[in-house]
Amino acid sequence: MEIDTSLIKLPEVRRDGPMSVEQALFSRRSFREFKRESLTLQEITQLLWSADGVTDVRNYRTAPSAGALFPLEVYLVAGQVTGIPPGIYRYGPRRHVLEQRVPGDRREDLCQAALGQDAIRRAPAILAFFAIYDRTMKKYGERGMRYVHMEVGHAAQNISLQAVALDIGAVVIGAFRDEKVKKIMNCETDQYPLY
């Protein structure tokens, strides 16, 4: 039997933490300087799950989605993550897995695509959000684009609050060259980078 080494099954999500939502909101800040140590597999699990994780057998997620159409794709760019080889991975929320898309550390490439923002080069890991607009626009027309943008804002805030609760720094970055990011991330042609 052949084992699929391109899939990484993530550990179980912790559903309780030492910090209240109110404390996380109070403490949330943008950090561009990070600890030099690697992130753990559990920390990455919590961050990915907070962005787009399944919370219910009916496929409900941690962030609201217009019509439950889930137009977001979340990618992990692993550089220094214990238990995950450097590379680019797509998060599969239903199976709670990472699927490797590109091997090797691509943080420097992403830094250049993001106009040289050094925080990307130094971050142990990067989470990238892509939209598949058609998933939502098929139902809602042009207004669906607005819904997708609202959804990515919800998901990004979830990550920001989860990072505070984990006592790790995070910053949201929106300045980058879309086509360069798409090429580096090896994403599908109908996916558009948002964060």
What is the element layout, followed by pairings?
Blueprint: E1 7-9, H1 21-27, H2 41-52, E2 72-78, E3 87-92, E4 97-103, H3 107-113, H4 118-122, E5 125-131, H5 133-140, H6 143-165, H7 178-185, E6 192-193
Antiparallel strand pairs: 1-4, 2-3, 2-5, 3-4, 5-6
Description:
- 36% of the residues lie in helices and 16% in strands.
- The chain has 195 residues and is an alpha+beta fold.
- Strands 1-4-3-2-5-6 form a 6-stranded antiparallel sheet, with helices on both faces.
- α5 (133-140) packs across α6.
- The chain is globular, with a radius of gyration of 16 Å.
- The protein starts with 6 loop residues before the first strand and ends with a strand.
- The mean pLDDT is 93.
Specify the biggest β-sheet.
6 strands, antiparallel
Distance between the terminal alpha carbons, to the nearest Å? 39 Å
Give a count of the beta strands, DSSP E runs of length 2 or more. Answer: 6
In the sheet with the most strands, the strands line up as: 1-4-3-2-5-6
Strand content: 15-25%
The average pLDDT score comes to 93
Order of helices and strands: EHHEEEHHEHHHE
Shape: globular
Please report the number of helical segments.
7
- Helicity range: 25-40%
Residue runs with pLDDT of under 50 for 5 or more positions:
none
Please describe the structure with a list of short key phrases separated by commas or semicolons.
195 residues, globular, 6 strands, alpha+beta
